[in-house]
Amino acid sequence: MSNNSVCPKCNSEFTYQDQDHMVCSQCFHEWVPSEETVEADATDKVLDSNGNELVNGDSVMVIKDLPVKGSPKPLKAGTKVKNIRLTDGDHNISCKIDGFGAMNLKSEFVKKV
């Protein structure tokens, strides 16, 4: 059984074909192999508030004061964040901010520097 397709969601190599679909045995994600590249292009782009594409390692600036859960002071507008990492989910930027520590941000509240 030579199957060269890996799961686009969890990158597992344990996939199998079910009629015209591929199925991942680890996360049960189903996809059509011919649509795999189109789906990956649509979901891989993360845009900032101005519509610029963000990539891992970029520097961004916070555009508005953001309340931080468990902290008495908000994250101020104009705070510069270096070396971001993109993640999946609602808060799609993972980073470390001086004075706050590790944090996840939404891309709609930052702009690329």
Explain this structure to me?
This protein is mostly beta strands. The protein has one helix at residues 36-44; strands spanning 15-18, 21-24, 30-31, 46-47, 53-54, 60-62, 80-81, 85-86, 93-97, 101-105, 110-112. The chain has a 3-stranded antiparallel β-sheet with strand order 1-2-3, with no helix packed on it. Strands 7-6-11 form a 3-stranded antiparallel β-sheet, with no helix packed on it. A 3-stranded antiparallel β-sheet has the order 8-9-10, with no helix packed on it. The protein starts with 14 loop residues before the first strand and ends with a strand.
Features:
113 residues, mainly beta, elongated
The residue ranges in which pLDDT falls below 50 over 5 or more consecutive positions are none
Coarse shape? elongated
Average of pLDDT: 87
Distance between the termini: 48 Å
Radius of gyration from CA coordinates: 18 Å
Strand runs, count = 11
Number of H- or I-type helical stretches? 1
Q: What fraction strand?
A: 25-35%
**H and E string:** EEEHEEEEEEEE
Query: What structural category do the secondary elements indicate?
Result: mainly beta
Main sheet makeup: 3 strands, antiparallel
Q: What percent of the residues sit in helical stretches (DSSP H or I)?
A: under 10%
What topology, given as strand order, has the largest sheet?
1-2-3
